[in-house]
Amino acid sequence: MSRFDVLTVGNAIVDILARCDEKFLVDNGIIKGAMNLIDGDRAELLYSRMGPAVEASGGSAGNTAAGVANFGGRAAYFGKVADDQLGEIFAHDIRAQGVHYRTHAKGISPPTARCMIFVTPDGERSLNTYLGACVELGPEDVEADVVADALVTYFEGYLWDPPRAKEAIVECCRIAHEAGRETSMTLSDSFCVGRYRAEFLELMRSGTVDIVFANRDEALSLYETTDFDLALDSIAKDCKLAAVTMSEDGVVIVRGDERIRIPATPIAQLVDTTGAGDLFAAGFLFGYTKGLDLETCGKLGCLAAGVVIQQIGPRPMSSLEDLAAKAGLI
Amino acid sequence: MSRFDVLTVGNAIVDILARCDEKFLVDNGIIKGAMNLIDGDRAELLYSRMGPAVEASGGSAGNTAAGVANFGGRAAYFGKVADDQLGEIFAHDIRAQGVHYRTHAKGISPPTARCMIFVTPDGERSLNTYLGACVELGPEDVEADVVADALVTYFEGYLWDPPRAKEAIVECCRIAHEAGRETSMTLSDSFCVGRYRAEFLELMRSGTVDIVFANRDEALSLYETTDFDLALDSIAKDCKLAAVTMSEDGVVIVRGDERIRIPATPIAQLVDTTGAGDLFAAGFLFGYTKGLDLETCGKLGCLAAGVVIQQIGPRPMSSLEDLAAKAGLI
Lengths: 330, 330
Prior knowledge:
12 helices; 330 residues; homodimer
């Protein structure tokens, strides 16, 4: 028995989204497609240069928890906001989606994290994250009963950026494994992999993490190679199960010698790639915790990713449960 | 010579938008399609029942100012926010669109106004407005030089809800007329007309307001009739120029004995009617202050309204200037 299918842990962030042209990224030194970490001063500067925007709750693992719940799964989330208006918005949105969320909001300074997302005409998103209150997440925020009661505990590689979140993660993984549960992580971003390569590999090789999510660039960065097949073979050795997304080329699921390839879901129009990886993980983990075969898990992931990239913002506004049922996947 | 084409004055509001079904409106006593004024307690209650949402700067006249600027017009705005995160978002978005906005943000209590917008499957929006800091707007917020330097000063009927905004409006109209400018208002909402019918008629009949925007329901409510032609004839007598929108039936422009009918712009899909009237006014006033003929003004209004109802949120994310040029209107 379990109370939750998936617990996710991550930086709790409100997204601020606007379109821009390619030149804007160059002029402002923003690495395209990446997560650029910024401090408060740079956040103010970039915001002053940003066009009219819209706001939506985000945060990689938060999007994944919301996605699992949107599929009809039982989800929980740990992540730190401040006691301010953006924090209230974040907490509202994730709870309104039916996700268990009780992490204590701590004071008003630093404020709730925000991510300025610039979407170029090709639909690619470039992230600029001010971590704010996320730096406060630590082991004291671990709700041990929730971890023990979740089939899979999933976390972001991004959590290695704030100072003490990794302590919370190690504790979560210990509790999860003691309770006979599984653990999972996303490598998050190829530059993030560059910052914490050795630690991420250690998490995998020590068995702290069972299931790994990555995209092609992150997998290549992890093994410092340009040979994708080599990266897949390496990841197969280093963890029990991995799903590696390849944008419009779909996904490859890796388990030992198995390679299951699933095509991307056809879409009418690419609007904004924000949340694609997060929603892939949501669909995959929803299927996985329901005991579905890996191919169906992958298809559920592709379905969710295909939905979110056809809208502005990181969490699908339509019912993933309905769409999955219509597609005959659940 | 003038520095501004259009100055607008209104309640400065951040919108919180979510979809809901028809039953939700009934269960929560929300009048469909109307602007429901709510207090802080009801705002908390409704928010606790609202699904996952997205946020976007709104406010009727704010949307109109942003629309004028999006067309390439020179726009200014007066409206009151608090010195809080939502106020910062509001100020950012309107300035980032190129609108002159300098109204002093006053303290943190009451907080910046918000409007919970529930969008039903038919695309209709039902507004639930907590006025917050908007109650602080008064004559001291009138930038006299801006009023005198704007070809048209436009305001919302909604401004009769907060206590002192109407004093600011009367002052604006006096300054505008002394400077040889024109004044304009939107009747805002049929229930708002019901609350302030006598005052709105007095504004028109006294010549305080030159140009009136209304939709069919508001025009019928103003004259307490079900005879639309009678309402049009009455409005023609009571002001110099009026534009009355009729949703998918387009718009009729009324000036003395003239009746210019313009069809609605065909759309692919109705997503969310939020901002339709505000953007119609933006297109119309942009054309009007450029000296274009009334039919072209109406077409510009219909174009902008047609754009905004095909997206979530009240301010078009695409360039109205480009779309108007492509349509051969400017």
